[in-house]
Amino acid sequence: MAWAKNQFDTFLKQDIRSLQLFFDLVSKRDGNRLRLIEDLLADLTKEDTRNLEDALAAILGRHDNLRLFDNFLIWSLKSFQRIFFDDIVALLNEHPPDEVDLEGVRFWGG
Questions:
Q1: Nearest 5°: CA angle at 32, between 53 and 45?
Q2: Does pTM surpass 0.85?
């Protein structure tokens, strides 16, 4: 459960906040915009930077007629699917509920 909460917090707090800050900075109409964006990127961890890049590519990189909000919604739903379904299914496939180590200790129960 702690893992899911951490994933949720990362996705909703850090990833979404980074996107919001980025779009807020891009929309500014002053000469400091580029420096502020560089500062934002410098403050992010490598993982958070990669997540922001992936999100921006998913949202802005579409070449069809969808609006920005639609792209954001699609990215959000796909991210949720990946984090809270696909990754969990992959983990359960890798470590089935009855898995034990060489000493007989259950992987999921300790």
A1: 30
A2: no
What is the domain extent for residue 23? 2-67
In-domain check, residue 19:
yes
Q: How many domains does the chain have?
A: 1
Residue 110 is predicted with a pLDDT of: 59
Question: Do 52 and 19 contact (CB within 8 A), yes or no?
Answer: yes
Q: Is there a domain that residue 43 lies in?
A: yes
Q: Which of 8, 47, 39 is nearest to 22 (CA)?
A: 39
**Tokens linked to 61:** 């990189």
Per residue in 41-100, pLDDT (tens digit) is 788 888 888 888 887 777 776 655 567 667 777 777 888 888 888 988 998 999 998 999
Could you tell me if residue 57 is inside a domain? yes
R_g (Cα) of the chain, nearest Å: 19
Distance CA 46, CA 86 (A): 23
